[in-house]
Amino acid sequence: MEAVNSPKTAQGTNAALAAGVGAIVLAIVLPLPPLLLDLLLSFNLSLSLVILFTSLYTREPVQFSSFPSLLLITTLFRLALNVSATRLILLNASAGQVIDSFGRFVVGGNAVVGFLIFIIIVVIQFLVITRGAERVAEVAARFTLDAMPGKQLAIDADLNAGLVGEDEARGRRAAIEQEADFYGAMDGAAKYIKGDAMAALFIVAVNLIGGFITGIIQLGFTFDEALATYALLTVGNGLATQIPALLVSTAMGFVVTRAAGDSELGQDLSQQLARNPRVLGLTGAAVGLLGLVPGLPTIPFLALSAGTLALMVAMQRRIRQQEAGAKHASALPAVPEDLLGLIDLDPLEVELGYGLLVLADQTQGGDLLNRVAQVRRQTALDLGISVPPVRIRDNLNLKPQQYTIRLRSVPAGKGELPAGRSLAIGPDELEPPEDAIRTQDPAFGLPAWWVPREAAGRAETLGYTVVEPSAVIATHLSELVRRHAPDLFGRQELQGLVELMRARYPALVDDLLPHRLSLGEVLRVIQNLLREGVPLRDPVGVFEALADASTSSRDPEVLTGFVRRRLRRQLRVQFDLGGGRRAVTVDPEAERRILENTVPGEEGPVVRLDPQTLRAFQHSLREQLSRIDVEGRPPLLLCSGPVRAAIRRVAEATIPGTVVLAYDELDSQARVDAVGMVGW
């Protein structure tokens, strides 16, 4: 996308458009050879098809906001082709193979049939499609303009209430203005199509009358020869230009009548037309009865009736499966964590397609509930925080074998588990399993295969780690919980920890909260620790460190650094620093430059280096860290304490997961080998 939207590409596209419009104007003035005219007529038909198919795949009208201008360009292009074709017809009594083919083969060489088809196309385009689309655009423009003040007030209310930010509000206002401008432009652009249809009738008359005069008087044709030549050429020219015009006007109708939605037109039609199987049944019966009427062709009607009834049966089967899935979901047993209880806002949700509900049904041997409980317990032990209950429910909008994991109602991960298969994870060097489907592990993105369950043993003998479907979901959930631990640990969770600490260490808690620090300041520090993978397994040590550090500062970043220094021993164990781990340091001059160009921000320090210097530092960082053999562990970067938080922001944006430690965060037993230095 960056390449498509780059300024250089945009300049080239604008230059090409200007050159194309200029070429259209030249085509009106200069005569074109028949071969070039054939090429342009073919391009006109292709462009019309592109516009038509684009309109079909547009989910809302504003996505095709350039359509009014494109209508003007295509109309001008067709008029230029008409002028060039008329010039060739009147001068040479020939206009290339495309027009000749439309005149001879498309209408069978019959000028009368050709004229009738041409008139029908023009009438359909002028009276039916264009007039309807023009009316729809006019009404939509009026309603959109009438609704603008209310929409603007709603945006202002959301902005004042803090529900949206300034940038989002500005974007929503721009979208409203763009929608109003689009429908207003479409209201006028429809007249291009009407004018083009009227011009086509005039051009046909000019070609026919002028051809007869030129052929009989100047070229010495007989009446029959002039009729055979110019009538077919006129019809061919009319059809060659009006069929693309009909496609464009049809695209215009699709665009202005499209209601905004999350799916494409074909998907909406299939869902809405086939929603009620009884409609299909009645249709099939009616068509079948028509096939039995004497005089009507029996086979076509009976074939359509059979196809419609078969579709009805398939729809009924699918609805029964969905209803059965809903019943399974309602029959899932309750668990101590009340996983299936309805609450206002679930911090963690696992949504299952109806084909995966059996994984959560203990009566059918499903173990997903137990695995989720294990994930919660293990994560609590590893991170030192209480993981909120996980709600498991069905979602009939998902594919049968699909699942989605939501964090605070927002999708955070999803996957699809093919029926009857297990996940075999292993490096690319291993021999591919038999009858396997290539995929990636949804939790870590590792190369993997979906293997039949009966072939799981053979995959293990090849060196793969085979995981059951319920374990795939549980592992994915565990990884997302660890990755988003700061988002899951809020004030409510901290208050629960404070109450637990107050029961055992009342003096410590009463001294810290709320006299020295507020609950929000303590929360910011703990979230900073979790964000860098430092667990809260020693809350007493964290609270003691905060109580000591709060006498000199209440800045969350300063407090975080103080707590990290108190947790040196835990950091050594957490990041395996006792066995001579290889690391990269930061050049002192680079540290000084970064520190001088760092300012405090709402979510931590903000580095304001000039882009060239920042890119040079990031390039050096990638180059140095790539030389370290991390052996499955995240790369390690060492720097001075005052600049650690700022360098960590840069490192995370460059190589996510990089561990950044300050020199004073290493205890006496840490053994680190510096093998490189990051600079400019």
Short précis:
The protein is an alpha/beta fold and 680 residues long. It has 23 helices and 14 strands.
Question: Can you offer a commentary on this structure?
Answer:
With 680 residues, the protein is of the alpha/beta class. Helices cover 61% and strands 10% of the residues. The strands form four sheets. Strands 2-1-3-4 form a four-stranded mixed beta sheet. Strands 6-7-5-8 form a four-stranded antiparallel beta sheet. Strands 13-12-9-14 form a four-stranded parallel beta sheet. Helix 11 (368-383) links the parallel strand 1 (348-352) and strand 2.
Radius of gyration: 35 Å
The averaged pLDDT comes out at 83
Give start-end ranges of low-pLDDT stretches: 338-344
Helix fraction, binned, reads: 55-70%
Give the helix tally.
23
Number of strands: 14
General shape: elongated
Strand order of the largest sheet: 2-1-3-4
What percentage of the residues does DSSP assign to strands (E)? 5-15%
Distance between the termini: 29 Å
Structural class: alpha/beta
Q: How many structural domains can be distinguished in the coordinates?
A: 5
| Major sheet size, sense and barrel closure | 4 strands, mixed
